[in-house]
Design goal:
This protein is of the alpha/beta class. It is built from twelve helices and twelve strands. It has a seven-stranded parallel beta sheet with strand order 8-7-6-9-10-11-12, sandwiched between helices. A five-stranded parallel beta sheet has the order 2-1-3-4-5. Bound molecules: nicotinamide-adenine-dinucleotide.
Length: 335
């Protein structure tokens, strides 16, 4: 099957080529994102393969359908960038990679907690400058701190398991309880209780209408002074402006972000020689107690291999008319 791959980075090409060796799929790799100006590149391709920042709006999907595209294969789990209803109307199938390495993301969340707590990012710079004083580097024991996990699916459950290893007290909030997480001794509480009691709050739920800006000024006012907030999920779970206000007030003592609500214009590109035009982001990076990574929590060898293998399996299943186990539909997300 002919597939146009958008937002291609060298590692995507390497892993997809390797995973498709025994198939007859023909991939054409485009570095550009899929959008209004680039959708014409997809004409004549039965499949498009896209990532988190490719925008599959109603209009783009209509143009894909006109060009003969029948399958949208996401190389990620989240599908908030795809108008699934429009795809269904245009009779395009949408498939995704529901899980690749939940360990990668959970481990990154914990890496952010430890780095912020023990100020590894500052210590690294100090030592390189020959400053061996411990000024400003004091942290706290993770032992017996209360960690609130919002969303206890695949990633949240692994984060819980890792944090259990530190002997943290675990609080959880989810619309569905996970028995695996309960078995670790985590206590499911209301979101209000979780915010009020946690020393660290870590977000692992999807971005949906219900979760948009769940961390807003009201939620932040409930939190302990000096709380650590970690978001490796999706940027728009957090109202960034409200977070900036509470960083200034001192209520947020530590902030670790792998995602940012306006990240599409920044992440995955080298902008080091450009002036950043996003004033909110620019303000965020001035705080000494904030670390930001550019949506890299998933970025491990194991995850990339798994993404490529599942993507190739999804495309093969479509080509052979088999059941699409990873299909995304309006009514349900299979698996
Ligand atoms: P998952 O589907 O296994 O778990 C998500 C959990 O969130 C589920 O248990 C679900 O019940 C819960 N949930 C749904 N609505 C909720 C609500 N209103 N409040 C609280 N919880 C709610 O997904 P996962 O694999 O654990 O991934 C979680 C999120 O991580 C994804 O949605 C994605 O946005 C993000 N993610 C980020 C990266 C990265 O590189 N930073 C990579 C993969 C996934």
């Amino acid at each position: 099957m002919k597939v146009a791959v958008f937002s291609t980075k060298p590692y995507d090409e390497t892993f997809l080529k390797s995973a498709s060796q025994s198939s007859t799929h023909e991939f054409t790799f485009f570095e550009t994102r899929l959008g209004e100006k680039t959708v014409s590149l997809a004409a004549g391709y039965e499949g498009v393969c896209v990532f988190v920042h490719d925008q599959l709006t109603d209009e783009i999907i209509q143009r894909l359908a006109e060009g003969g595209t029948k399958l949208i294969a996401l190389r990620c789990a989240g599908f908030n960038n795809v108008n699934v209803a429009a795809a269904q109307t245009q009779k395009l199938k949408v498939v995704r990679v529901p899980a690749y390495s939940p360990h990668a993301v959970a481990e990154h969340a914990v890496a952010m907690m430890l780095s912020l707590n023990r100020k590894i990012y500052k210590a690294y710079a100090h030592v390189r400058e020959g400053d061996f004083s411990l000024h400003g580097l004091m942290g706290f024991d993770m032992y017996q701190k209360t960690v609130g996990i919002v969303g206890t699916g695949k990633i949240g459950a692994i984060a819980a398991k890792i944090l259990k290893g530190f002997d943290c007290r675990l609080l959880a909030y989810d619309v569905h309880k996970n028995p695996e997480v309960e078995a670790l001794g985590a206590q499911y509480v209301t979101l209000t209780d979780l915010f009020e009691q946690s020393d660290i709050v870590t977000l692992h739920c999807p971005l949906m209408h219900e979760t948009y800006h769940m961390i807003n000024q009201y939620a932040l006012k409930l939190m302990k002074k000096g709380v650590m907030l970690i978001n490796t999920s999706r940027g728009a779970l957090i109202d960034t402006q409200a977070v900036i206000e509470e960083l200034k007030s001192g209520r947020i003592g530590y902030l670790g972000l792998d995602v940012y609500e306006e990240e599409e214009d920044l992440f995955y590109e080298d902008k080091s020689l450009q002036v950043i035009q996003d004033d909110v982001f620019s303000r965020l990076i001035t705080f000494p107690n904030v670390i930001i990574t550019g949506h890299q929590a998933f970025f491990t060898q194991e995850a990339l291999q798994s993404i490529a293998e599942t993507t190739v399996q999804n495309i093969t299943a479509f080509e052979q008319g088999k059941e699409l186990v990873n299909e995304v539909t309006v009514d349900r997300v299979k698996k």
